[in-house]
Amino acid sequence: METYLMKKRLIALAALALVSGMASAQSSVTVYGNIDIGVLTQNNAPAGGSSTSIANGGISPSIWGFRGSEDLGDGLKATFNLEGHFYADTGASDPRLFRRQSNVGLSSATLGTLTLGNQYSPAILAFAATDPRGLRENFSGLYPWAYNSGALTTGNNGNNDVGVFLQNAVSYSNKFGPVGIAGAYSTSETKGAVYSLGATYTGPVSLSAAYQATNLANTSERGSTIYTVGAGYTMGAFTGKLNYLRGTNKNAALVETSKVGVTGVGVDWKTATNNTVMAAAYYGKDKKNSTDKTTTFILSDEYALSKRTTMYGQLVFANAKSGATLLTTMVAGGTAPDKTTTLFNVGIKHSF
């Protein structure tokens, strides 16, 4: 009798181990991130004179995170993403542990993906498809997007983090062949609602359109509106991109304070399977301030030592007019007004 019970226990334990193994096989968690650091020199530094610094995030942000999924069957998955950033030059981290992403969702192969929590704006993800620099962490359309999304002119809407991350948000995305669509809504709560839409078409010709609107904090009044349209075309080793961004902002009295247009054009040349040369030009102008104009030229080279490690060099010429502000710049922190600033950045990015 004891032998019989022992065999039953062993069979039960084996079955439990098998089920547990199957469950773990259906779930996955990935630890990932980037470390991007380099040296940046420039003349006409905003503080005066020339400067040389150890620069964090030349082409990609330095980030770390966890993402995972669980197969629920019938093509349905549960997903999550936790992502924060840090400063590789000092080792400092943001006070908010997962400032970039902290979300959970359900994903269906046919019905699309529903995500709740802190997440990337669908609009900026669409914008990235045709930005001439692919929204590199520095010297790209990322900065007019961020600076024209309300952070500078309409006060702090706590749901809109520099136009890139949306808190208290629910989003839906899906793909229909080469067409991708996505939308998100950040619930007002006490911070102000944010509406974000993005659409892309992927092929030899790529197209994108994006729209994002942010209400003033604690009101239902629109504080900032930003949209972009763009196109790209690939022919052999060359890819050309053209994009237009328009951002408008109002103050607390609902008076329009800025109306910025930024046109960007660029070409990527894949000189080898592991090397890409990029040339881009941006022209930014605020129609509410005739002296707020910045023209930026960027030449860069990115050489992949491996799938995970890339060395890069970037040369930038930024001509800022006398009234130039952050609203028309392509440089983090901007450049000195009424001057032509030259910046040179070399660095290395490693992904894990």
TrEMBL record:
Keywords, comma-separated and alphabetical: Cell outer membrane, Ion transport, Membrane, Porin, Signal, Transmembrane, Transmembrane beta strand, Transport
Keyword ATP-binding (UniProt): no
UniProt-listed GO biological process terms: monoatomic ion transport
Bilayer topology term: Multi-pass membrane protein
SUPFAM superfamilies: Porins
Top-rank taxon: Bacteria
GO cellular component entries: cell outer membrane; pore complex
Porin domain mapped to chain residues: 12-319
UniProt xrefs under Gene3D superfamilies: Porin
Cell compartments where the protein resides: Cell outer membrane
Protein name: Porin, Gram-negative type
